[in-house]
């Protein structure tokens, strides 16, 4: 049975339309790829006043694969070629790499327009630290904080003072930890296994706290465990995981903050100058 002429014409029209549609999509795709390649090689480059730009030859991905293949070797090679500060282009974004904290960090603080970190500050502040948006957006407050930390943590004499205090507390706390393990027979002939990473975390936590906040820093395990639970959820909180995954960390963070605020409302014993100046920036009643 033969098809009518009208049916044959209809089928031919459908086939032709599909072919034209496929060609159109192909042309659009080829044009899009051509634009990406053109942008990558002709228009994507180092902006005025910014660090050396490392973009590789792969559009969009840039240096991603070189970094993932061997991060340490790639970063060291870039440092040798471009210096202590350079910019990587990966997955459509520019990532600034600072290899020398002594020279590099002051440059970052002094060139806010070039090294914009506002998005990172907002994400880190709201999701991880639980800060209010109004304090993050308060320009005067944040400028005061940056000036305070830059002068306190980069001035050599003040760094020397903090280092001396840290070493003093380290000797005391390390000795206490060793005595505690000896009393529990963990260092004897039949001693039990010790979680070294947790022990080091605890020692560093208490040494840093006492160096900055003085002898008033809480030394109980609950305070440390709350901080550890909060710190272990850093990635999940920054990535915006559902609250089901982060609620324990958020609860630990709030308990930690309550203890810290309670401590700050009491007279501090031998605190660092950094904390005394920091407390003058904003009254505790507003925290």
Characterize this entry briefly.
This protein is about 65% helix and about 5% strand. The protein is mostly helical and about 290 residues long. Among the domains are: about 55 residues, no CATH class; about 130 residues, no CATH class.
Mean pLDDT: 78
The biggest beta sheet reads: 3 strands, mixed
Which regions have little confidence, pLDDT < 50, spanning 5+ residues? Answer: none
Q: Strands of the biggest beta sheet: in what spatial order?
A: 1-2-3
Count of distinct strands? 3
Radius of gyration: 29 Å
Task: State the shape.
Answer: elongated
Beta percentage is under 5%
State the secondary-structure class.
Answer: mainly alpha
Give the helices and strands as they follow along the chain: HEHHEEHHHHHHHHHH
Description:
It is built from 13 helices and 3 strands. The protein is mainly α and 287 residues long. Among the domains are: 48-103, no CATH class; 155-286, no CATH class. The protein has a 3-stranded mixed β-sheet with strand order 1-2-3. Helix 7 (139-154) packs antiparallel against helix 13 (273-279) and helix 10 (221-232) crosses helix 12. The chain is elongated. The protein has helices spanning 5-43, 64-69, 71-82, 101-110, 118-128, 133-136, 139-154, 156-183, 196-213, 221-232, 234-238, 243-264, 273-279, and strands spanning 53-54, 85-90, 93-98.
């Amino acid at each position: 049975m033969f098809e009518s002429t009208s049916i044959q014409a209809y089928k031919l029209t459908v086939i032709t339309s599909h072919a034209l549609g496929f060609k159109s999509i192909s042309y659009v795709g080829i044009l899009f790829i051509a634009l990406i390649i053109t942008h990558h090689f002709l228009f994507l480059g180092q902006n005025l006043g910014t660090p050396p730009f490392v973009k590789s030859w792969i559009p969009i991905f840039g240096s991603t694969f070189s970094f993932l293949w061997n991060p340490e070797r790639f970063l060291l090679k870039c440092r040798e070629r471009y210096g202590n500060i350079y910019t990587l282009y990966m997955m459509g974004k520019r990532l600034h790499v600072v290899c020398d904290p002594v020279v590099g960090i002051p440059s970052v603080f002094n060139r806010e327009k070039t090294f914009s970190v506002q998005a990172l500050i907002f994400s880190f502040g709201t999701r991880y630290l639980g800060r209010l948006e109004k304090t993050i957006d308060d320009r005067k407050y944040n400028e005061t904080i940056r000036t305070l930390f830059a002068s306190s943590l980069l001035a050599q004499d003040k760094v020397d003072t903090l280092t001396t205090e840290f070493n003093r507390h380290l000797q005391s706390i390390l000795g206490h930890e060793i005595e505690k393990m000896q009393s529990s027979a963990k260092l004897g002939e039949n001693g039990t296994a010790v979680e070294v990473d947790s022990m080091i975390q605890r020692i560093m936590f208490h040494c840093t706290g006492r160096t900055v906040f003085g002898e008033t820093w809480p030394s109980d395990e609950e305070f440390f465990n709350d901080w550890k639970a909060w710190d272990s959820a850093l990635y999940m909180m920054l990535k915006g995981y559902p609250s089901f995954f982060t609620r324990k960390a958020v609860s630990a963070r709030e308990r930690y903050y309550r203890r810290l605020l309670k401590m700050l409302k009491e007279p501090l014993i031998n605190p660092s100058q950094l904390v005394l100046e920091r407390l003058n920036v904003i009254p505790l009643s507003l925290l």
